[in-house]
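Any chance you could type out a protein's amino acid sequence plus the matching backbone structure tokens because I've never seen that pairing?

——
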Amino acid sequence: GNDLAFDIEKAKSKVNEELANNFGNLISRAVKLSAQTFDGTTPPPTSTMESTKVLAKSAIRVGIDVYERINRLDVEGAVGAVVELLNLTNKYFGDHAPWSLVKEGKTREAGEVLYSALESVRIASVLLSPVMPKTTERILRIVCPDLDQPKMSDALQWGLVKGGTPLDKNLKPVFARL
């Protein structure tokens, strides 16, 4: 039979760009800043900003899309949809700059941004769990330890990260660069 063409440099680039840079950095920044700002815990859940509501709706739509793609055995498309959610979340995070909000004394607003980033990380982890079970299990233990045996339906709900959940300020990188 024909061997599958495999480009190791392309694979490394994908891991570095989409996982280490995109997902890993988002996890690290959101967890560390949340822990520093909210006494070592996740911020309380809030959704007062319009951009937060848009992110929440987008995350739920991605959950539905991924569920449908997995049922069609379109794993690449499903993973691509999750990467788009992570891109959207990173843009939201950067646009709102919670580190600046903290410096300005806008802790509630910073908390909303940080909580929303953690919630997106949770949803992305649930959606990626069929293709990355060990890694996503580790991520879920960090951001939502109460979510035991996550189900795909957990990705169709916004707000499962509980405020006040203990976080590790000294979090080690989830994804190593290759």
Notes: Residues 8-37 form the longest helix (30 residues). The two ends are 30 Å apart (CA to CA).
